[in-house]
């Protein structure tokens, strides 16, 4: 990539050149970062939640710090110089939610979703889908994994002001990819389980310190999360992480797997997946081997569903879909033909219908039940390798 050949980008009104949509649901959405513990065994996540409208609320940065631009540049292009260019083009983009906005209480509590990111991503790159789900009345905890699969991440040591960064790591030379990735997916699923335990601790009244924000107290969540209604969700490496989390933690009642990369899961575990999974695939990522693994799960559980959104590529399920076309195609080399707002609507409506069914929610999300059968505009059942319209 020649840096001079990249398009010059103007800044739109909402947070630079990234046009992330606001949630379509009835709730305003707030957002905060939560880090607990001073070692890599702690947890780091971005929390999206229904909030009270507040005048003068600030919107958080989409890329939280310049280190993440360097991590992305390294992951996508293996070129460090690209980091400065990313900082200039996307460094000032913001997410249309209220940063540290006041939590909106709800008697009985909101259902909870633990969200797992894909390979080379981090906690903020799925802000569009997390915001959308929060606007419909969910608390969504988007993890940042510490298994070296994030573009980069960090933890704050016990020594004040000192951070330790955990860079992205590829498969070491001479090591079989399956064994490397299988170890990672187990660590990721354990982090999902630990995140759920964190919310259980808060709900039980334990004092849990968020070391990033002394002004956003986790105790506001007490009595406001319904821990009988918990799901796990993720994209790509995060999709298979969500499936494995169902095996490890009985409290997760179902999983939503966006374009799951099924490769890292060992065959022994397929009979062990006890709960329903909704697989939402894009048109241009899955392999027959991966889909065969999904079908093994659906043959064991009639509530497991597989649908494909036509006109989409793997990145269509991330926030990158909302960057201007020229930039995305320069970075990734491909772009879906389906409008990103339409893709987000299909993904979130199918997820909401599925979550209503399996978390026993008293909402009207069943209006989108047809999507779960692959019925609707731009959606088909299962995995149509023969039906590409890109």
UniProtKB/TrEMBL annotation:
EC number: 3.1.1.47
Keywords assigned by UniProt, alphabetized: Hydrolase, Lipid degradation, Lipid metabolism
Domain of life according to the entry: Eukaryota
Active site residues of this protein: 236, 259, 314
EC class of the enzyme, as a word: hydrolase
Example GO biological process: lipid catabolic process
Coiled-coil ranges (or none): none
GO MF annotations in UniProt: 1-alkyl-2-acetylglycerophosphocholine esterase activity
SUPFAM superfamilies: alpha/beta-Hydrolases (SSF53474)
InterPro entries, per the entry: AB_hydrolase_fold, PAF_acetylhydro_eukaryote
Keyword Oxidoreductase carried by entry: no
Keyword Hydrolase: yes
Protein's UniProt name: 1-alkyl-2-acetylglycerophosphocholine esterase
Species per Swiss-Prot/TrEMBL record: Onychorhynchus coronatus (Royal flycatcher)
